[in-house]
C-alpha cells in the first residue's frame, strides 16, 4: 500500500535505492533523502518498504520523477506502476504541466505515457545531479517527459 514516509524511514528508503546505485539509479546519501523526504512515496507490505519513488518540483510547471525502485522479490506486481501513478496524481494536484525523468528503462516508462525528448531540453539544474554520477559524461540514460 502506498504512503508517504516518516523521517525515520529514510534509512530503509536509502537501502532500497542504493541496491541499484549506479545501475539505474543515482545513489543517495541519507542527508539527501532527509532533505527530500517529503518528495517520496513508499510502498509497504506488512510494514516493510518494498518500493519507493520521488517527485521533485523544479519550476511552476515542471517536476522530475526520480529514484523509482522496487525490491527484486516484489517485481511485476504493479508496485512500480502504482508509485508512478501516485506521483503523477500529485503532479496534477499541484497543477504542474510536465513531469520528466532520466532512465535506462525506456520501454517501461513508454508504457506509462512518457515520451523521449532530447536531453538538451531539460533545465540546466538537472546537470548538477548528472555530474555526481560515476558514468558522467558517458550517460546510458535517456530523457523522457509526460505532459499532464
Ligand atoms: C523498473 C522497476 C521499478 C519496475 O517495477 P515493477 O514493480 O516490477 O513494475 P510493474 O509491476 O509496475 O510493471 C508495470 C508494467 O511494466 C512492465 N514492466 C515491468 N518491468 C519492466 C521493464 N524493465 N521494462 C519494460 N516493461 C516492464 C510490466 O510487465 C507491467 O506491464 P503491464 O502493466 O502491461 O502488466 C523495477 O524493475 C526496478 O526497481 N528496477 C531497478 C531500478 C530501476 O531501474 N528504476 C527505474 C530507473 S528510473
Q: Low-confidence parts, pLDDT < 50 over ≥5 residues? A: none
Strand proportion, as a percent range, falls in 25-35%
CATH class: Alpha Beta
CATH superfamily: Gcn5-related N-acetyltransferase (GNAT)
Q: Helix coverage percent of residues?
A: 25-40%
- Which of globular, elongated, flat, extended, rod-shaped describes the shape? globular
Number of beta-strand segments: 7
| Ends distance | 24 Å
The biggest sheet amounts to: 7 strands, mixed
Q: Name the CATH architecture.
A: 3-Layer(aba) Sandwich
Bound molecules: coenzyme A
Widest beta sheet: strand line-up: 1-2-3-4-5-7-6
Using the CA coordinates, give the radius of gyration.
Answer: 14 Å
Provide key terms for this protein.
binds coenzyme A; Aminopeptidase; 7 strands; single chain; 148 residues; 7-stranded mixed sheet; alpha+beta
Describe the structure.
By secondary structure, the chain is an alpha+beta fold. It has one domain: Gcn5-related N-acetyltransferase (GNAT) (Aminopeptidase, 3-Layer(aba) Sandwich), CATH 3.40.630.30. Helix content is 27%, strand content 30%. The chain is built from five helices and seven strands. It has helices spanning 10-18, 30-35, 79-93, 106-111, 127-130, and strands spanning 2-3, 40-45, 48-59, 62-70, 98-103, 115-117, 142-147. Strands 1-2-3-4-5-7-6 form a seven-stranded mixed beta sheet, with helices on both faces. Helix 3 (79-93) links the parallel strand 4 (62-70) and strand 5 (98-103). The radius of gyration is 14 Å and the shape is globular. The mean pLDDT is 93. Residues 20, 24-25, 68-70, 75-81, 101, 103, 105, 107-108, 111 line the site of coenzyme A (COA).
